[in-house]
Amino acid sequence: MSLKMMCDQGALADALNTVSAVVATRTPTPVLTCIKMSASNGRLELSATDGEISLQLALDRLEIDSDGEVLVPADKITQIIRECIDPTVTLESEGHALHINSGDSHFKIYGFDPAEAPPLEPFDDSSVDCTIPAGRLASMVARSLFAAAVEHTRYAINGVLLDREGKRMRLVATDGRRLAMASGDCQSDADPTRCVIPGKALSLIRRLASDPEAPVQISVAESRIMLRFGDADCPATLGSSLVEGRFPPFEDVIPRDHDKKVVFNRELLRSAIRRASLLTNEESRSVRMKFESSRVTLTSHAPEMGEAVVHVEPKDYSGEEMEIGFNPNYIADALKVADDEEITFELKAANKPGVIRCGRDFTYVLMPVNV
To answer: Is 232's pLDDT higher than 80?
Structure first.
């Protein structure tokens, strides 16, 4: 049956932009670069997969004259709908092709047989592991994913560990030089869960969490995770293969014997780090921090460039004076995602890892550097 419908241009453009993030960029299989559009029961479902990650997204801001489905290249359909200036667009299929009309413009895209699209698994309501508000989950992703390794030989740390026990969930990421752990409460009566999720899948969560109060149901199987956003009438469903391999024993990495604690205003420290890093380069990517009872002095030096000295006043300091060096970019990354006004810096010695804490839900461990 031929598809024929009218859609809100803005809503369709946003949905296509989100779903197109899933498609494969380099593949010998053309259908993995496509988006499948299926109209039925008064709504349009957009779906795509790269073979490992899948996304199904439903739209209901449309008028359907005739149910049907098409499979078209994601880049072209997304570009065309984005450039349409009329508030509505009309879509009509002709065989494997799709006609798009908007205002004074007409486009025809050649696609593929929808039957060639890989089948995508539905969300299994009977296997829900836990439920968490979308905004809380998105915040946890933001405070962990940035520290994950990229193309590391230890494949497990290319992803993010999901560790849930009872009604408490943790997301943990590390690249071997730093470790970020974000925690949050969830609803669950299931047994503890532990799995490693690819970074690409997690990066989509922030796009799908448009309503921070909407529930996200999570289902974890032996080799796959499924997340359903929103209600069952018009949901988005994200599926992903899990990363193979054992995640490092991260709890052993978090120091517990620090005897020096410094409380900072987050924005003051962030500004000081940014200024001190102005005179660093790739060969000298470090800032020395001298901790004293009344102030902290940040210094940096780059040969043939110059040096910087920046003072910042802590809100509280306990412990002896000490000096230690860190990569300023690593500190800035943590301060960017911390969402409390105050952060606590915990230290032990110049050759021991430092810890940044923000409330009870964010812990960040970073290795020192020689300066």
So the answer is: no
**pLDDT reading at 11 higher than 70:** yes
* Together in a domain, 244 and 266: no
pLDDT of residue 269: 97
* Alpha-helical regions (H) of 133-243: 134-142, 199-208
Same domain, residue pair 47 and 160: no
Q: For residues 280 and 170, what is the distance between their CA atoms, to the nearest angstrom?
A: 34
Instruction: Say whether both 303 and 339 belong to one domain.
Output: yes
Are 79 and 143 in the same domain? no
d(C-alpha 76, C-alpha 211), whole Å: 28
> Helix, strand or coil for residue 193?
strand
- C-alpha distances in angstroms, 369 versus 49, 214, 353? 41, 42, 10
Based on the domain organization, do 266 and 309 belong to the same domain?
A: yes
- CA 325 to chain CA centroid, Å, is 29
Are residue 161 and residue 245 in the same domain, yes or no? yes
> Is there a domain that residue 195 lies in?
yes
Range of the domain at 195: 127-252
The CA-atom distances, in angstroms, between 96 and each of 1, 182, 315 are 11, 46, 65
pTM equals 0.91
From its phi and psi, is residue 351 left (phi > 0), alpha (psi between -120 and 50) or beta? alpha
C-alpha to C-alpha distances, 364 to 112, 144, 170, 248, nearest whole angstrom = 47, 9, 13, 15
Q: What angle do CA 204, 210, 213 make, to 5 degrees?
A: 115
CATH of the domain at 286: 3.10.150.10
Tell me the pairing of strands 224-229 and 236-241: antiparallel
Cross-sheet strand order for the sheet of 159-165 = 193-198, 159-165, 168-174, 178-185, 362-366, 354-358, 342-347, 260-265, 316-318
